[in-house]
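Q: What structure does this chain adopt?
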Amino acid sequence: MTIQLKDLGKAVLETEYAVRGPIVARAQELEREGKEIIYCNIGNPQTLEQKPLTYIRQLLALCQYPDLITQGASLFPADVLETARKILAGTKHGVGAYSESKGVRFIREAVAAFIQERDGIPADPEAIYLTDGASKGVQTALRILISGPNDGIMIPIPQYPLYSATITLYEGKQVGYYLDEAHDWKLSRTMLEESLAEAKRFGVNVKAICVINPGNPTGAVLDRENIAMIIDFAKAHGLAILADEVYQENIYLAQDRFTSFAKVMGEQGETEVSLFSFHSCSKGFLGECGQRGGYMEIRNIPADVVAQITKLQSVSLCANLTGQVATYAMVRPPKAGEPSHARYTEERDGILSTLKERAVLLAGGLNSIPGIQCNTVAGAMYAFPKITLPAGRTDADYAMALLEQTGICVVPGSGFGQIPGTAHFRTTILPPTAKIQKVVERLATFHASYK
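A:
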């Protein structure tokens, strides 16, 4: 007899991932039938016409086909050729061989230098793991932390479904804490304490708190004061921190700055709070989602626990080498005076300025529609507007009807979590500007007639 659904584990059956759920499946059906679909459901820049940076693709080409370093040298700038030589020498056997489990040492040293330059604090290459995108690092951290069905992980509401899905799959407890929509989605110490107390009341052993900064799906950017508060909260209750910082380059307001958890902990001399932080070449301005490159940095974790993390990483042997090279390109871009610098800077700034324009355009457009309210998109790649619905309708009903009638594919807010009694949807700011305008126009017409 073939395997049956009843043969699968409860954790697998209960795991959900909203950004690729039934609405997306229906969108793909409609697209095959010839309907124009505007995919606003996932942060996948290159599917929405963002072009890859020349520098990173040249570097990947040379590392994948080293003969080009000599045979096609005239096609590539001198600094890219030299960087490819260094990477290939650092891998020892090229990108077709396994690296050590933590990743190529040469690349981890570059990541450590990037962190030190960014934050002004020391960083240890041995505390850095190169991963298949940030997601694999997050999953490793959660696998380490969840040791039994009573272990809980605090996650923001709304949150990115990677967290709820992985916690469910690992049979832990999701402990949601609400972000304050009325105050730009900031975190409140009162809300954190209430969430923790409620979990403890039900006997949950809370192990860690996850924070996404800049926020997905909220688009919020946390300031240093909010980060320091979270660290103090974690210390007071013996919690580890998972800092998802993959959108650190996506900051759109002049008064905002990205501040890492590592930087604040370093400045405070904090040694009692364990930190897992994550970055990825899928977001920012690179948008190299398919390369699956990223890293996890750990701080304040004992050596015997580090050994267990390394063991888990070893089960997959290593992160893919192409992703490791992409991560190197992210943390070590061309420097001023190098031949590739001017083009790299022009392409980077063009992407970021366009994203900033779209963030303003989308939020403003949504707020012009009666029955829709959207906070300023200060960072990341998303908006999470609140919607007023007719009695008896859900945000899932709304998103499916929106797709069927307009071809716009968004994700219902219920897939990310929201305060009971409210309804939202998540949309990206990634479609080309003309399509963003089309999204707003179609949404306005649809929302006015939705019953």
